[in-house]
Amino acid sequence: MQRASDGAPSRALVWIVDDSPLETELAATALSLRFDVETFQDGHSALERLASRRAPDTLVLDWLLPDISGVDVCRFLRSNAATTTLPVLVLSVRRDPADVLEGLSAGADDYLSKPFDPAELLARVSVLVRARQHLDRAERAERALRSLLEHLPDVVLALDDRRRVTFINSEADRLLGLARSAIVGRVVTDLLPDLSLDSPATGDALPDLRWRGRVFAPFVRPLPAQSLATTVLVLRDVTRDRVSAEVARLADQRKDEFLAMLGHELRNPLAAIVSASELLTRLPGDEAATTHARQILGRQTALMARLIDDLLDVSRITQGKIELRREPFDLRTAVARALETMHPTLVSRRHHVESRVSDEPLPVFGDPTRVEQVVMNLLHNAAKYTPPGGRIRVTTAREGHEAVLRVRDNGVGIPPEALSQIFDLFTQVETSLARTQGGLGIGLTLVRSLVAMHGGSIEAHSEGPDKGSEFDVRLPLSDLGSDPPAPRPKAPTPRTPPLPGSFRVLVVDDNEDIAEAMAMALSAAGYEVSLAFDGIQALEVAARETPQVVILDLGLPGIDGFEVARRLRADARTAEAMLVALSGYGQASDRARSREAGVDEHLVKPVDFSVLLNLLALRRDALDP
Ligand code: ADP
To answer: Which of 448, 478, 522, 539 sits CB 3.0–4.6 Å from 423 for a disulfide?
Structure first.
């Protein structure tokens, strides 16, 4: 229903087209009781008006007009989209049934003969106007519904009882890449052969449909009887969901594999450690057996420490917690150091190592320890993935503005399809637990991250299985000068131990094994050592023993190491003690936090024992020169 601008429903509009003024007057008077009325004396002026004005809700049309026949007016109205449903009531003086039939078949909706009863005219026009208003409402509702369907983000299809498509919304075009005209009327399973409408459905969901690189989740629902279609089928584009679910599943699977591998990798050295310690207890006097057991312990704990270091490094790198300590250095020096460190491993597998060193200096501005770690990792892999007696070639060269390091081996090689993945976390070409070479699949991830942090790149090459592998690292050359860098200061060698009893050290660590091992080592070096395993105990022992040095683990239960440090500083008896913190974290912010708590030295675990002994010796000398 139309509404006037003041919000009240406006009256319907009726046109009267009649050349007889008298009858026009009669009709207009009757109709204006309920409707707005406009009158026209000939057909043309009415039709012209139609082009510029809103069409009436009903037209009262004299069948015999001076200019144009009623039949033509009706035909024109019916052929015009805007007026095709406009109700028309014909007025005619003739009562011939053939005329009535002609009018009705030309598109008229009702017929009244002249002279007419105005009350009857009003009643009949009212019926037509009401029908027109119902039709309008139905059309508006259908438009709204259609627009809703068109704007749904899914493909919506209506199917008849033979599964022919009777409707499809415009998403068909966007998501399926099919024109609507190519779909309507076709049997849906002919169009989409992979659609399995007959599979057992869970609820109304069917198995995924793969179509032109996308994945759709189909949903079907039967429509109630008397609907225009029997079934509605919705195809929801779930490509992104399915891809992320698959990524998550693979990540989960890799995590499980990794945990299995981690358990395996840690159990091996542990088994050796357990046997070696048994050996030590059972054969305390046997010098050769003890030495052997000690060597096993040393090797296996170093192996475990390396695994754990790699794990921690990877997690710190992924959290962006690693900072490079940059300085100018020569890549050739880092490579020489790494070769030296890896020498025992390379020798133990009887590899022939050839080192081709650049004649030119290769100045790099970066963290030499981390670059050494990169080279060591690559050498370690070359040694591991090459059968004993292999050839490993290490080359350094200057290429353009880059320093290049190549580590080439003639070992097991890498299948082409694995080349792009080996740098990903936890990725290993051979992941069976039975493989002979250890490792967790994190070495190359670390290497790539460290190289990237230096602004460099790494590539792996291999011609395939058993054809050997080559890893090329490229680092930007630094223009800070190509002078060979000054050698890094070596850790000073431990000083002579103090006289027993002259110097008191308190070791605080909640891991009793670590605390006791350190106490034993410090006692062996001549210090008088006491122990505490938590913060409160540390404060009690410190107040009683007044140690000159407190070695303090920061992660303690109850009150943590920072708080212990603050309280020791606040207590006159311990305020002067030297506080050495041991922490798993060594970033500038961690050190600052220690300093604020009153710590003198912040050492990162695992602690280099010679560094600790030197600190103690310096302190002892300072107190007792
Ligand atoms: P890990 O050696 O602990 O398995 P890495 O991240 O160092 O982990 O290496 C990932 C994978 O890349 C290895 O498992 C191995 O399959 C492959 N790979 C690495 N270096 C070599 C190499 N020099 N020759 C053959 N394969 C290698």
So the answer is: 448
